[in-house]
Amino acid sequence: MPELPPSLQKEQKILERFMWLSIAVSLLTIMLKMVAAWVTGSVGFMSDAIETVINFVAAVVGLWALKLSAKPADANHNFGHSKAEYFSAQVEGSLILVAAVAIIYTGVERLITPQPVEQLGVGLLFSVIAAVLNAAAGYALVRGGKRYRSATLEADGKHLLTDVWTTVGVIVGMALVALTGWQVLDPIVALLVGANILLTGYKLLRSAILSLLSEALPEEELAKVNSFLDTFAEDNGVAFTSVRTAAFGRERLISLVMQVPGEWTVSYAHAHADEIEAGIANALGAAETIVHVEPFGYTTRTGPIFGDSLINSR
User: What residue stretches are annotated with the Cation efflux protein transmembrane domain (predicted)?
Assistant: First the structure.
């Protein structure tokens, strides 16, 4: 089995370090939030702690997905294993939904049978520390995910940032309990947290499912491809039709037809195709491009189906 190029090996190590950071932060915040929940007896703090447990499990699954997605293409997976990252996002979304149901159930139960909360000052202190840790790690993961086009990293980072807002909501709710003495605010906060987590899980699942359907490249990447093809066509006297794109995790696939003058030799057309492959890879950072060469005026079966214009976003 061929190994990854050195540049991709370096990138893979960076991504795995990000996931180890997420795992470490999740473990630390679990301890902080569990202590806050145990000291205060607050179902609001407990709901926040449950979500952090989900963060930890999701980070472990994400690390596994990153390792699997880095495996090069083989006889059974000709285009590699990049889509493994989307399965990680699906697992994370599913776990979030389970956590939301558990939190909402606990909140309803506490509404029916109210219990007083104690030592809120200690609980609030631990929760603030946990929120700061999650915010720093989440911001780093989202930035890393966007930079390295990692669905796993970005999804985990967004989950951590969502957890920050959840914790902020819990802190505000518990502070109001301390100021007003209204114990009913504790389960109400838990229910609001559960509803927020439910929405987050839905968005993650929806995004992962759409990605598994091989969506076209994002608008900004499509613009880069179009710009390169426009310039290349003008400079070399060729035309492009039936341009199609797909994103597979960190991988990018582009398929296109290059129409050339009929008198061109195969070798000359092939040299231009090599330039296109290298140019698109350079424009996107990395990409696999399949170029089909035709003489001007020749119409293939793909023409009527996919149209004779450049990428449909133009």
Answer: 19-213
